[in-house]
Amino acid sequence: MKKFLLLGLILVVLGSLMVASGSCSSTPLKIQVVTDATYPPFEYVDTETGEIVGFDIDVMNAIAEKANLDIEFVNVGWDPLLAGMAQGTYACAISCITITPARAEEMLFSTPYFTAGQIVVVQKGNTSFTSKDDLTGEVGAQLGTTGAMEVEALPNCTLKNYDEIGLAFQDLMNGQISAVICDAPVAKGYVATNSDKLKTIGEMFTTEQYGIAVSKGNEDLLAKINTAIQAIIDEGLIDQYALKWLS
How many domains does the chain have? Predict the structure, then answer.
C-alpha cells in the first residue's frame, strides 16, 4: 500500500512540474521595440489615436504573435535608434532599417522581410532633372540613412540632412532644396498626398533589403524572429500588409 501511495505522490509531483514547466514556456518574452515613427507608411503616429501604426508595425505585431513576444513600441529618433542598437541600449528595432555591412558590425539583423530602394523626388514643375545624375544644388535626405549616403556620392550636389524625412519634403515644396532622395515607398507616399507639388523622376536606382535589428548577444531572440518572419512570409501576410499600406 505504501508503495502505491509513494508512486501516486511521485506522479502528482511530476505532473505539477510538467504543468509548471509548460506555463513558464508559454509566458511571452517582454521586449521593447524601438522605431522612428516619422516614416509613413511604414511607421508613423496616427494623429487621431496617438498610436504608432504602419506596415512595419503590422509586420512586427505578426512576428510577436508567432514568436510569443510581448512587445512595446517605443518612438525614438533615427540617430538615437541606431546608436542605441549599437550600444545594446535597446533589444530590438524595426524602422525601414536597410541591412548594410557597416550596420551589421554593430548589431544583428534578421533575414530580410522587405526589398526597397532609393528614388528622387523633385517639384512638380521641375523639367531640369530627369534622373539622379542630373541633380545639382542642395539635396535633402534623412540623417544617417542610405538616402543620405547616395546624395553624398553625387558629384554636383550638397547634402542637406534632416532629422525627419517629412521636413525635407516640406523644404522641397517650399523651393528651399533641389530634390529629396529617400526610400521609394516613402517617396511615393509623399508624392501621392502632394501630387500637385511633387513628382518622382527616374526609376528606383538601388536595391536594398530591410531587416529587424537585434542587439548583439541576443541570438536566441534573433532566432525566434527569423522563424516568425519565415512563417508570416509563408502565410502571405507580408503581401497583405503591402497591399494595405503600400499600394
Answer: 2
Q: Is residue 56 part of a domain?
A: yes
pLDDT values of the chain reduced to their tens digit, one per residue, 247 residues: 434 434 444 343 344 434 344 434 579 999 999 999 999 999 999 999 999 999 999 999 999 999 999 999 999 999 999 999 999 999 999 999 999 999 999 999 999 999 999 999 999 999 999 999 999 999 999 999 999 999 999 999 999 999 999 999 999 999 999 999 999 999 999 999 999 999 999 999 999 999 999 999 999 999 999 999 999 999 999 999 999 999 8
* Stated pTM of the model: 0.82
1 within a domain of the structure (yes/no): no
Q: Which domain holds residue 177?
A: 118-206
Same domain as 197, residue 93: no
**Does some domain include residue 59?**
yes
What CATH number did the domain enclosing 192 receive?
A: 3.40.190.10
CB atoms within 10 A of CB 238: 18
Q: Residue 6: inside a domain, yes or no? A: no
Looking at the fold, whether 234 and 219 belong to one and the same domain comes out as yes
- Centre a 10 Å sphere on the Cβ of residue 155 and count the other Cβ atoms it contains: 7
Give yes or no: residues 70 and 44 share one domain.
Answer: yes
